[in-house]
User: Fold these one by one.
Assistant:
Number 1:
Amino acid sequence: MSTTVPSTVVPRYTGTLVDGEWGEPRTRRTFDDLEPATGRRLAAVAAAGPEDVDLAVAAATRAFRTSGWARANPTERGQVLFRLAQLVRERAEELALLEAADVGKLLADARAEVELSASLLEYYAGAANKVLGETYQAGPGKLAYTLIEPLGVVAAIVPWNYPLPLAVLKVAPALAMGNTVVLKPAEEAPLSALLLGQLALEAGLAPGVLNVVPGLGEEAGQALIDHRDVAMIAFTGSTEVGRKVMHAAAERIAKVELELGGKSPHVVFPDADLGELTRHVALGLFKNAGQDCCAGSRVLVHGDIFAEVAERLKEAAEAQKLGDPLRDEGVTMGPLISQRQRERVHSYTTGALADGGSLLTGGRALVEGFPEGSTFYAPTLFSGARPDMRIFQEEVFGPVGVIVPFQDEEEAVQLANQVPYGLAAAVWTNDLSTAHRVAANIQAGMVWVNEYYAHVMEMPFGGFKQSGTGKDYSLHALSSYCQIKEVTVRLSPPA
């Protein structure tokens, strides 16, 4: 048994954080936040509604106008973010336990995500005073310059698969640029975002600069994206909901930043290192139980090595050890987030079988030997998937992949691009020319060669096509959270 004592995972903050104060929602309702590995209730969390969102946006609006945050020296804003990063590190184990229990992920992964969150806060703290305007001598007696200004109230709406780092990816650059924020965490995993709100207060953030409103997406989330006083919506989630966000923003011409779904391919050539390939494909398919927008769920393999790769990946899938990440030793994959998500994932399996796909392994919910109410699903691989099948085209968001053969480079690129998404991709070859050529032709915002999940925070993260607009990570993210004003001055002639 693990030395971790998960029963101590007791969230301290489960209400709404508005204008620096914790309180009950005006709805007087809560929802149960369940631990997917056991089915037990972790907490009863405030179910904020439209009135709570109104109060939060009003608090953020007042703070933007009166707190001085928007007009503070950027270095001073950075100092607050540095203090917040320090507090995140001081409470790292508490945050990691909350994250692991709430999502059902490996504790080692949760700890790494907390460290990433602290590093992101430090990165944007240091970037706060690096965004500078421009000057231009427009002619004799004229000077033109630009001002970089915050937008106002930013609505940050984040999903449940990486709750803390995805919240920080919105909150940190928004605050660095002088905005105020209303953060709406996912109802499936809100606990670490709520603690982040408390730590922000302890770091010295003025009341109202960061507000947190947990609640259901169709109530609190919808009210937030529809709110007339929200200047920008920063959203990470499904492409389906992203369309609704964009539509709501269009009604009032609000700014949007969308990081949406993916259906990422591995493109595997005959000269690939199959040992490394197997390890990285298994990571891309089964990390976080496949609940990842970058999941490498389409493995496109040259026909000469297709049979060998399929057998290697089948063995890797069947070698995964499923169990409670906080209580069982040696676990490599945890549960799906909810019963609803497991049903959704299984519908893709049954649909693929009905469409003529060949099931190599998995394809079932795991019940026997697992706690009642838990949500485990077997690692699943299909061969024989055609490009017109849903399992080839659509994001499953679970531990389900397809292995598809190709005969030449042209066909490989065509298959890679034959989906509506374009988030990430990997190319596996030892030929430098092939690697560069294929990477250039794949329609994806990120292409990794001979590895997977190779992203670093100093580089832009985001996709093409229906995978979203704008960029997270890097200095590029800051441009989403500001606006540029031109000022031209006619100077008085010398006396």
Number 2:
Amino acid sequence: MKAAIEARIWRGGAEGRFETFSVPRRDSQTVLDVVTFVQRRLDPTLSYRYACRVGMCGSCAMTVNGRPRWTCRTHVSRLGEGPLTIEPLANLPRIKDLAVDMVPFFDKWAKAGGRFVPSADAGADFAAVEPASPARREADAGIECIGCAVCYAACDLVSWNPDYLGPAALNRAWTLVSDVRDGGQAERLAAVAGDAGCHACHSQQSCREHCPKSLNPTASIAGLKRAALRAALKGGA
């Protein structure tokens, strides 16, 4: 195996270029380790984002060899001996180098009704949520999303239609639709049933394929489609 890694790293914003760095190869080395070495040893002006380094926060997500990934969990040894090509996540504005603006991503969570709305009688008593109930299981299937935007970067529909709410926002909406305690169902279903909402999904499952948490936003979006249709038939959406 080669003693050095050739790392092609994006520099600049929307307009920029790749710069190539030679990084020593080490045991158990991750792509985040490579980027950190470049910033600390070779070019301190390199901008990127990370926090936990152990696969819990998702903030180190970048595009590596054309695929959106958590760089802290991507081992260089599993990517072969060729050069590494490291870019910022797709479908989000590039701030500088490997850092993107996450505001549009989280704005879509808000547009999809991604916050819990207490029901009118929320203060009356503790809500009983049976762990084995179908609704609880539906919510459990998508609730582990940490908002890393890997699925958003992988979504072809977001690339084609920048207004599309995206798999993460719709997955979040589905977990709340499945929450029997939530009181904002009518407004939320109306929000996700628009032209840029769940019905626009082509079910290509790029989100499922790339999700580092092994979630299936496509299934969540299918659930929203069914719920929105039921609401429409009842005159509620």
Number 3:
Amino acid sequence: MLAAHVQELRRGTVVVAALGILREPTYGYALLEQLEQAGFRVDGNTLYPLLRRLEKQQLLTSEWNTEESRPRKFYRVAPAGEALLTALLEEWRSLDTSIEKLR
């Protein structure tokens, strides 16, 4: 039962974490690794649709790098994504403060 609630809680935090990491251009697999190292276990089948959705919402931009032997699509946070990240972090801090008051 706890696992389901933890998964629900983490679902929205992956967006915040990804936007934060993508301040620097990063390709999908490297993003998966960075999220994992930070404690966010995300499956590629979850991350790649998320990246496409954020790009469609103009929160991310992408660019193909074909200079290496394997072409890679690099993502980077767009100005609208940076603004969203700032707002989400402010909301996160506000929620944390409110929850602490309840304890």
Number 4:
Amino acid sequence: MLKKKITYTDYNDNERTEEFLFNLSKAEVLEMEMGVNGGMTNMIQKLVAEQDMERISKTFKEIIMKAYGEKSLDGKYFVKSPELSTRFTQTEAYSVLFLELLDPDKAAAFINAILPQDALAQAQAAKDELNTPNLVPVE
């Protein structure tokens, strides 16, 4: 989970510094990796190599919205919803974050920080297992 402090100016012209939370669960990472032909990681690398800014911006917005949430007081839940994500994107904090992620190094650091430590390896192993033909002879 990433706790990110963002300083921004709100719509009342007040400067604010707030902490926002971002996280992707192992299940969410697996869904994203398996939901894109060739995997999400490869797709992002391809978009960056091709400098496809339109798709890069849409992909990063999707990732930010999927990762944004609020932790329950007891720490048992990381609550996410389309309403919470939309509310976040309507703040200037989102604008500050989005512009920051245009820097490839900062984007990579953000992605790495919101992923569970072993999520990509597990996602790749699961994809490999699904793509491995059954080696046991059927009689």
